[in-house]
Amino acid sequence: MLLKILNPYKLLRFFTEFTSNNINFIKNKYLNSKFYDLNYLIQNLFSFDEKTYSKYCNNIVAEHQIGRIVNMRNLVDKHRNEITGDFLELGVFEGWSLVFFDKFLDKKKKMIGIDTFEGLPHDSVNVSLGQKSVPKWVKGEFGSTSTLKVESNLKKFKCRKVSLLKGVFADRKIHEQLKKLSSHISIVHIDCDLRDSAYDALDLVKDYLNSKKSMFILFDDWGVHQNEIPDGFYKWVNENQPILKFNLEKLYTTNYTRYYKLSF
Ligand SMILES: C[S@@+](CC[C@H](N)C(=O)[O-])C[C@H]1O[C@@H](n2cnc3c(N)ncnc32)[C@H](O)[C@@H]1O
């Protein structure tokens, strides 16, 4: 037995694997902290590209941040003529994606963000076996924020004034407040993790669908848990597409984002 363990070939293989695993662990820790740094992301907003994406796509945080930044920029650049209305974000947390979009969108565009600013409104419900990066979501997650914190991030990065509404997407008062702020929305960035929240988000923007104008519906957190956002989206589409008869075109994706264009 001892001889088997001391086999030099096996020992060498063990040490090579051990060293390589540790190097990967340290490398990933370093990349996680780098790509969770808002200052670093803002400095590189216009320099990240497909090449940087390929270089870092094995790290989950880098893949997500570079991927979504490149896609946001491409969407705004390539569809500028169709983006005639306002920008709405459903799921703001600390406002990072609001800061990104502020830098990409025409300065005259109105931006609105809606969140509880107290975290997820409930736990994951009926999520089946299997997971990608999270087993399930828990009520209150992302609660470490406030409208003041978002406003301070917006100010720090010299963004335009963004209207922030506090409440859940399904609340009728939120629907009314949104109506007062905007009559035409072109981009909806939905970043809310939960299946019911995604469904409620889409129901909130239903009144803004216009047969003559496209709406870009962008999902962050697509499939972070396979039963959450995709299920909420398909439920809403299955209920509404037969009646409203819209077309959906998938424009851009990354591992955890999916951007659609809805038109008639
Ligand atoms: C992942 S965070 C958003 C991250 C942010 N967009 C960013 O890029 O940094 C998800 C947010 O969705 C919000 N949220 C989820 N469901 C909601 C609902 N039904 N109504 C309001 N806010 C909701 C949570 O409070 C949380 O702040």
What can you see in these coordinates?
The structure is a single chain. The protein has helices at 2-5, 8-35, 38-43, 50-56, 60-78, 96-104, 147-156, 172-181, 195-205, 229-244, and strands at 86-90, 111-115, 163-166, 185-190, 215-220, 247-254, 257-263. It is an alpha/beta fold and 264 residues long. The protein folds into two domains: 10-74; 79-263, Rossmann fold (3-Layer(aba) Sandwich), CATH 3.40.50. Helix 9 links the parallel strand 4 (185-190) and strand 5 (215-220). Helix 2 packs across helix 5, helix 4 (50-56) packs antiparallel against helix 5 and helix 9 (195-205) runs parallel beside helix 10 (229-244). The mean pLDDT is 93. The site of S-adenosylmethionine has 20 residues, from helix 6 and helix 9.
